[in-house]
Amino acid sequence: MSALLEVEDLRVTFPTPTGPFEAVRGVSFSLGRERLGIVGESGSGKSLTGRAVIGLLPPNARLSARRLAFDGVDLLGADARMLRRLRGRRMSLVLQDPKYSLNPVLRIGEQIAEAVRLHRGGSAREARRRALGMLEAVRIRDPERAMRLYPHEVSGGMGQRIMIAMMLAPEPDLLIADEPTSALDVTVQMQVLAILDNLVAKRGMGLIFISHDLDLVASFCDRVLVMYGGRVMEECRARELASARHPYTRGLLDSLPRIDRPRELLPTLSRDPAWLDPA
Amino acid sequence: MIRVEDLEVTFGAGRDAVRAVRGVSFAVAPGESFGLVGESGSGKSTVLRVLAGLNTRYRGVAEIGGIAAGRGDRRLPRLVQMVFQDPYGSLHPRHTVDRALSEPLEIHGIGDANARVARALEEVGLGPAFRFRYPNQLSGGQRQRVAIARALMLEPKVLLLDEPTSALDVSVQAEILNLLKRLRASHRLTILLVSHNLAVIAHMCDRLAVMNRGAIVEEMDSEALRRAAPREPYTRQLLLASRGYDRAVAAGLVTYD
Ligand SMILES: Nc1ncnc2c1ncn2[C@@H]1O[C@H](COP(=O)(O)OP(=O)(O)OP(=O)(O)O)[C@@H](O)[C@H]1O
Ligand SMILES: Nc1ncnc2c1ncn2[C@@H]1O[C@H](COP(=O)(O)OP(=O)(O)OP(=O)(O)O)[C@@H](O)[C@H]1O
Ligand SMILES: [Mg+2]
Ligand SMILES: [Mg+2]
């Protein structure tokens, strides 16, 4: 089986007054119809890696890679029309912060229905019906009411679920979800993850799940990439994350408060410059 | 120090009216740290916003140090301050750290701004080098430190924290939680903390209340949470879900009304 996504030596660089800054430095991985987690500290390049794949980098970013291919199609060589088609219909990105991705002056219902119509056509009524169904699927209570609200009137967790519903509208083959559940309570989080889990298991969707929550990734994903300073420090099976060896991964794991292990203060990470030496 | 009794908040009218907070009551003693957890949309942020004076349309009692919140009493800002989840949204993008920190002093006519700003920065572990930076020149954790420093400028007795670390990575979260513990001890702060992370609540708080659909389901001490001994099925389900993803658990989740 060929991989859904192939990434080889991905680099993302920004120009700065003091010379180019390489935010992603040679990341390689492949993704099948599975759940791949990306963890790592803030600024380690997780979001940029996801954005590079989907083609949504900031305008001043420069991308290079030895290979970047989706379902066998070379994304580096493809023409603009092809890319738009792939990115609109077959790959989707759920952004880290719903506040910046929802239009503040449009009611929630109009926004989702719009997304549905864009991808599937059909009548306004049909789109509305589908939009309602999608809000139900992400466990929004009283979806009828939610449809009539403006973005500033929904709670943090509702906004995040609305985003997920919108990004699943086109039934993508690849979903990149960037901290999609950080504002959700744990039960709703679990229900939303079950939806994604189902799409992977039943429809064969590929999922890249970016998160700070190491325990969640360990329990939810199949494999994990641990990123630091734009590089992959370690790759392991998700179930084995808790026994990871790399001192960076260990440091991240240790800094988590745990219900069953009370401590007065939490250890914080001490970074070793040697981690960034080329292997 | 904090007294909330039969608090009611309703948003909207007619068919879209929603009782976001339904008869919530709890009390937090001086120097105590109290947690609020519960379902998304259950009214946690709304309770905090009422106490911070940001939501003045409420019924019932919401008092800090015996003063009713949101009723125009000018002593309140010096008694209670709030820190929001989003370190990006809570600071003005075109104001330097220096301006963000000195503004509350100006508004309340407090002198000695220069020394106070320097001390506040030091207290949250940011050196003088950060003083004239803009928010976009700070990392998420640094911004949250600035937001905490700003909340502390008026030397409040009560700190309201709404998901202060959920946008941060785990190592920065550890730094911020350590900082809050230190400040709580040195300033004898009373803390009200909202978080979805039960481990964070157990780590930081003496007691907690669990909310669902605008109401408090149960109140307990963190020790009971540690022993996994909540009384209510809703809380037991919350605890179960916090142990990580499990397909069978997900399929068995029920909705409590
Ligand atoms: N538009 C930009 N211009 C310059 N540098 C940028 C830009 N966007 C991101 N960076 C830098 O690239 C690096 C990686 O950023 P990225 O957003 O991928 O981090 P992340 O791992 O997603 O972090 P977080 O967990 O905080 O979301 C950071 O050092 C960041 O400051
Ligand atoms: N300005 C507003 N107008 C209308 N409804 C609102 C407004 N603010 C909040 N609500 C509603 O009040 C309810 C409670 O919202 P609140 O933000 O307090 O929840 P929360 O417990 O903090 O949730 P989360 O964990 O998702 O942040 C929600 O149903 C929300 O839609
Ligand atoms: Mg990111
Ligand atoms: Mg909230």
- Helix and strand string of chain B, N-terminal first? EEEHEEEHHHEHEHEEHHH
Instruction: Tell me roughly what share of residues is in helical segments of chain B.
Output: 25-40%
How far apart are the first and last residues' alpha carbons of chain B, in Å?
A: 31 Å
Helix-strand string of chain A: EEEHEEEHEHHHHHEHEHEEH
In short:
The complex is a heterodimer of chains A (about 280) and B (about 260). Chain A is about 35% helix and about 25% strand.
Keywords:
heterodimer, A: 279 residues, alpha/beta, Rossmann fold, 2 domains, 10 helices, 37% helix, 23% strand, B: 257 residues, six-stranded mixed sheet, four-stranded antiparallel sheet, binds adenosine-5'-triphosphate, binds magnesium ion
Q: In terms of topology, how is this protein built?
A:
The complex is a heterodimer of chains A (279) and B (257).
Chain A: E1 5-14, E2 21-31, E3 35-40, H1 46-54, E4 62-64, E5 67-70, E6 73-74, H2 80-90, E7 91-94, H3 98-101, H4 108-120, H5 124-137, H6 143-147, H7 156-168, E8 174-178, H8 186-203, E9 206-210, H9 214-220, E10 223-228, E11 231-237, H10 247-254
Parallel strand pairs in A: 3-9, 3-10, 7-8, 8-9
Antiparallel strand pairs in A: 1-2, 1-4, 1-5, 5-6, 10-11
Chain B: E1 2-11, E2 18-28, E3 33-38, H1 44-51, E4 59-64, E5 67-68, E6 80-83, H2 97-107, H3 113-123, H4 140-152, E7 158-162, H5 170-187, E8 190-194, H6 198-204, E9 207-212, E10 215-221, H7 222-226, H8 233-241, H9 247-252
Parallel strand pairs in B: 3-8, 3-9, 6-7, 7-8
Antiparallel strand pairs in B: 1-2, 1-4, 4-5, 9-10
The structure holds adenosine-5'-triphosphate (ATP) (2 copies) and magnesium ion (2 copies).
